[in-house]
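Practice problem 4.
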């Protein structure tokens, strides 16, 4: 019994508490509170200030890269004379293209810096793929829970609609026929009219249960004076294809629909996941081709990758700004989600319970209890008519059996309504959605933020080191001169000829001692 009464709960994680505790400043640099109010301009200002930190970091990166470019373009131009003298002094003791001494050490340093930056970028890409997968898993759990809750609410709406339709059918059909037959017998007529009155009371009570209809079917009427006149039957479908209602005028539909929220989140998540995959592939391609360009000493390839590295640098800092604002806003929501959900869905009943779906469902169970009492009274009247009236009015048997059949179907629907309106099922869906969003989703966004930061640092280092790397590569004219010098060297050619034809030299020495 203890395990059956256990209710799942949600507790904010450590990362949620840490991010929620960050200070908030508006555009006028004044401290603001950290209550999650996404529609408030003051709250949006705090997120803009946090996002602007990545813009400041981008400016610093551009200044660093610009300073290195000025260093390579201007400072090295004055060192060409000294560099040529050093190359002439070291030319006799060097091989290959003559890179040795100070210049060789500089080239090696620049190359290793570029390789280290590319390695750091590859590590960041691995973190990004993991974070993207974690965020996708969290959103999948959130949307699955919302669709399950929407399926439950749609089933509730279907049962209510079928029950009201059946009772209306019994009032307009068999009960009316029985009243006409019992016109001459006042006791039987009073019992029949009591059944009609109780049926109308049940219809009114079910019409006031607005949880399912206000959460799923927004096309139902709000006029309570006409009992069930505007009720449209709704067939529940599996959570994967649950029906939704698209709002037309605001961010959230009024009233709120879990199915609409799930489908909207799924569409946005697909675009987000695909965007990050493309960004990660772009970074990976740039890193691999930079390594290939360094290995092949292909200057044109490195120049092309430098252009793409500039693009990746801007995208990395830009994504970091969006992720920072999203992480902080999500931490504000996850620190106290009940308050925002209650205000958004208008489910507040004036209490401070920590379980959201417990708030309206107490009233729904009370209404169901009153409806079941009314149905029990209808059963009593029908049993009395069955025992006493059929012997005097045999023509009323068919109508009486129809009313009893409708009543039995209605009681079956009531048992299902009580099970579906159980707080544990909807509360479990609510807690699961919070865990998916605030645990896996939050962790994935933090990993993506780390990826953006590391990749931005890596591309900054790459853009600083690549100009020095491709300047150290020999040009085509230098390679051509080196090949010509080797072919025109008489000592090298004579030594090669002696190594190629040793038997001919031996024969000549023996012939002319």
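Answer key:
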């Amino acid at each position: 019994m203890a395990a059956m009464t256990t209710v799942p709960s949600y507790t904010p994680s450590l990362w949620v508490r840490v991010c929620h505790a960050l200070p908030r400043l508006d555009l006028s640099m004044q401290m603001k509170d950290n209550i999650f109010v996404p529609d408030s301009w003051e709250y949006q200002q705090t997120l803009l200030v946090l996002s602007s930190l990545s813009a400041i970091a981008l400016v610093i990166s551009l200044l660093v890269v610009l300073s290195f470019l000025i260093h390579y373009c201007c400072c090295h131009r004055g060192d060409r004379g000294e560099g040529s003298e050093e190359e002439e002094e070291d030319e006799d003791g060097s091989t290959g293209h003559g890179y040795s001494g100070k210049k060789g050490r500089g080239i090696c340093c620049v190359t290793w810096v570029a390789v280290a930056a590319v390695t750091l970028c590859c590590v960041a890409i691995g973190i990004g793929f993991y974070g993207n997968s974690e965020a996708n898993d969290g959103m999948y759990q959130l949307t699955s829970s919302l669709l399950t809750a929407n399926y439950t609410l749609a089933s509730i709406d279907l049962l209510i609609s079928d029950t009201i339709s059946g009772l209306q059918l019994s009032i307009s059909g068999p009960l009316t026929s029985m009243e006409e037959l019992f016109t001459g017998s006042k006791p039987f007529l009073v019992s029949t009219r009591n059944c009609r009155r109780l049926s109308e009371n049940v219809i009114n009570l079910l019409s006031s249960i607005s949880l399912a209809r206000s959460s799923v079917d927004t096309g139902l009427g709000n006029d309570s004076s006409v009992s069930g006149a505007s009720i449209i039957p709704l067939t529940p479908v599996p959570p994967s294809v649950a029906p939704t209602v698209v709002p037309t005028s605001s961010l959230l539909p009024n009233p709120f629909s879990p199915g609409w929220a799930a489908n909207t989140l799924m569409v946005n998540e697909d675009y987000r996941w695909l965007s990050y995959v493309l960004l990660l592939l772009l970074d990976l391609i740039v890193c691999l081709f930079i390594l290939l360009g360094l290995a092949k000493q292909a200057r044109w390839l490195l120049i092309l990758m430098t252009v793409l590295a500039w693009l990746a640098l801007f995208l990395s800092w830009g994504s970091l700004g969006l992720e920072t604002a999203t992480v902080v806003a999500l931490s504000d929501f996850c620190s106290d989600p009940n308050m925002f959900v209650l205000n958004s869905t208008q489910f507040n009943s004036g209490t401070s319970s920590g379980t959201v779906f417990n708030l309206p469902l107490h009233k729904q169970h009370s209404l169901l209890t009153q409806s079941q009492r009314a149905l029990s009274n209808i059963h009593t009247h029908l049993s009395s008519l069955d025992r006493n009236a059929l012997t005097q009015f045999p023509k009323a048997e068919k109508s009486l059996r129809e009313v009893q059949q409708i009543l039995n179907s209605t009681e079956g629907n009531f048992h299902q309504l009580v099970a579906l309106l159980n707080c544990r099922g909807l509360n479990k869906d609510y807690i699961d959605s919070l865990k998916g969003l605030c645990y896996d989703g939050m962790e994935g966004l933090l990993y993506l933020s780390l990826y953006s930061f590391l990749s931005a640092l890596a591309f900054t280092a790459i853009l600083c080191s690549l100009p020095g790397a491709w300047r150290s590569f020999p040009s085509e004219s230098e390679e051509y001169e080196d090949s010509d010098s080797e072919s025109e060297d008489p000592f090298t050619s004579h030594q090669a000829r002696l190594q190629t034809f040793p038997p001919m030299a031996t024969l000549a020495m023996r012939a002319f001692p």
